[in-house]
Amino acid sequence: MLEISGIAKSYQQNTALRNVSFHLNEGEIYTLLGPNGAGKSTLIRIINRILEPDSGWIKYQKDLFKEEHLKNFGYLPEERGLYGNMTVEEHGIFLAQLRGMNRKEAKQNLNYWLERFQITDWRKKRIQELSKGMAQKIQFIYTVLHQPKVIILDEPFSGFDPLNVELMKKEILHLKEEGRAILISTHNMNSVEEIGDRGMLLNQGKTILEGAITDMRKQQSSGEYTVRFSGSMIAFVNALWTGFEIVEKRELPNNRHEVDVKVRNENTINELMHVLINQVEVEAIETKIPRMHDVFVQAIQNANTH
After folding, report:
1. Where in the chain do CATH 3.40.50.300 domains reside?
2. What sign does the CA torsion over 213, 58, 186, 74 have?
3. Can you give the pTM of this predicted structure?
4. What digits encode the pLDDT tens for the residues 53-65?
5. 41 or 222: which carries more pLDDT confidence?
6. Exposed, middle or buried by CB within 10 Å (0-12, 13-18, 19+), for 115?
7. Domain 222-288 falls in which CATH fold?
8. S-S: 230 plus which of 2, 168, 281, 306, CB 3.0-4.6 Å?
9. CATH class of 2-218
10. How open is the CA angle 230-260-273, to the nearest 5 degrees?
């Protein structure tokens, strides 16, 4: 759906992006991650034709990206901005018409989304009457109102309480199922794990990780396993002997335990199971895969020390 190749951008002496490339598929959620100042917003503005890159190119459905393609894009900027004196209905129709939709179809689509969010009574409210969270929900609706094929969301969960974060995730997944290509820039690592398919981690304008979210997490794995068992902790510790190292222990109800274990030398998970099987009642052994928060922190620290 969208291909970005070799994008670079500088502001005087400051390099914002260095040779950034990725592609976005139909029916996929791609996440842009990185600390503040990493270049995420600059990249999003370039994709939306707000800024021009110094070098590189963008293709939309195999054509070089042109201004006319923007009608197929929906963009929720990080800096929320709506006209306060307009009503929810007037504003939505106005923005949909800017993207090429006629008034009748825009009104029908707005009705659909207001009903879907169960906020039909907001229709005649002026934007300035809405709370920050309400205005953000309305701006999300405006982003998708004209049925764009590519949806770009810059910090879509910012300012929402946990219930509304879950609502947003549900709607984003619904749009994915409809075949939309979705690009999300966010600091919400839990959401990245739950809804992201692939992603990129930027730092100081450079790509330091890119690929499937599950693969990124596995690549940062430290060779630890989590063992859940019932029985004696002393027997468990004695069974491990010198082949394995206990990293962390957690007590569970009913004489049950959960222990993070690191493999030493050339030992394997099969050998771990073998030494434990006659000593305790093993409930589960799982490879410990780091959370995206830990992947993010570790990758940035590594990049900054090299």
Report:
1. 2-218
2. negative
3. 0.79
4. 999 999 888 778 7
5. 41
6. exposed
7. Alpha-Beta Plaits (3.30.70)
8. 281
9. alpha beta
10. 60
